[in-house]
Amino acid sequence: MTDPGRTDQERFIFGLPKAELHLHIEGTLEPEMMFALAARNGVPLPYPDVEAVRAAYVFGDLQSFLDVYYAGCAVLVTEQDFYELTTAYLARAADQGVTHAEIFFDPQTHTDRGIPFRTVVNGICRALEDGERRLGVTWRLILCFLRDLGAEAAMATLERALPFRHLIAAVGLDSAELGHPPRAFEEVFRRARAEGLSCVAHAGEEGPPEYIWEALDLLHVHRIDHGVRCWEDQQLVDRLRDDHVPLTVCPFSNVKLGVFPDLAHHNLANLLRLGLRVTVNSDDPAYFGGYVGDNLVAAAEALALERDEIVQMARNSFVASFLDEADRHRRLAQLDRFARDG
Ligand code: HPA
Ligand code: ZN
Questions:
Q1: CATH code, 17-334
Q2: Which residue's CA is minimally distant from atom 4 of ligand 1?
Q3: Ligand 1 centroid vs 133 CA: distance in angstroms?
């Protein structure tokens, strides 16, 4: 079916089957839903209307974004809220070609305000199960520790998650990067691995290449979230390439948070052309201006990506995922058919 609102390139990119591997579910809270949930839960908002919320989304760095992002989370109270948040994300993602989503959630943001862990995880997972049935989008859930709250709080969060272990595929590390190096979480990640959980970590977004080395060598991560500052360390670039370490790159996020001045100066294409396992993701799409297809369309245009480079990044997304081997091969075959036949 042709969609008169989309160009040929957009139709190709949106239709291309892809996995999203770097997505904070709390970062999909669109201003309209923020207002609806605030009214339903009686939570005051510091904005008069939706337009004022959007106008406030101008960030100079990661911390200035996080302040707004954590404030927005206050409207998420009931299991139904988490269900509706996740359901809305899945509809948008599926419309942009996502057939598999590995989703971060930040339990400490909610448990620290008195929301029970089970309320958060049950709401998200019920939506993911319904989404898989209705839209065919498969999923994994990744529990992120807030690095600025420290390793002790992270360990307590891991303990609290263990009754829900069957629903969680991996642990990650997010929030304010500078001054909170991965090495502080070595013991927490060791414990997570002992429970059979896989590991990922945000590193090299604002933090130095050293944080990427630590995530690899001390936390034993399966992929690096962001990782774009690897560029400053040739030995690290070689290591990432030789070990096929996936990078979950988020172009809109990097520009909105001032990591690159604009998309034309993003190092995504350089990293890809050096043979690194780059994937494109949306991070916090409600705050950064678009979902994964939007990120790919804009990056492809700004960086003059070839069609086979776009397909390569979609392939990488399945290769880098936590899908089992049989499923991964089925998805790659599906992707190759789409790339061949359009
Ligand atoms: N970086 C770090 N932590 C986060 C982000 C991000 O972009 N979004 C939500 N938590
Ligand atoms: Zn992120």
A1: 3.20.20.140
A2: 175
A3: 29
Reported residue count of the chain is 342
Catalytic residue (one of 205, 210, 232, 306): 205
Q: What number is the average pLDDT over the span 2-20?
A: 89
The closest residue, in CA terms, to atom 5 on ligand 1 is: 175
pLDDT above 70: percentage of residues in the chain: 99
Higher per-residue confidence, 5 vs 223: 223
pLDDT, tens only, 255-283: 999 999 999 999 999 999 999 999 999 99
Phi/psi of residue 254, nearest 5 degrees: -60, -35
- CA of 62 from ligand 2 middle (Å) equals 10
What's the pTM value of the predicted model, to 2 decimals? 0.97
Ligand showing the shortest atom-to-Cα distance for residue 70: 1
Q: Which residues contact 294 (CB under 8 A, 6 or more apart)?
A: 96, 252, 282, 285
Which ligand number lies closest to the CA of residue 67? 1
Half-sphere exposure in the Cβ direction for 133 (13 Å, CA): 6
How many angstroms separate the alpha carbon of residue 24 from the centre of ligand 2? 6
Please answer whether residues 187 and 159 qualify as being in contact, where contact means their C-beta atoms are separated by less than 8 angstroms. no
**Interval 62-97: pLDDT, tens:** 999 999 999 999 999 999 999 999 999 999 999 999
* pLDDT for 1 beyond 60: no
**210 is known as an active-site residue:** no
First to last CA, the chain: 12
- Every domain of the chain and the residues it spans: 17-334
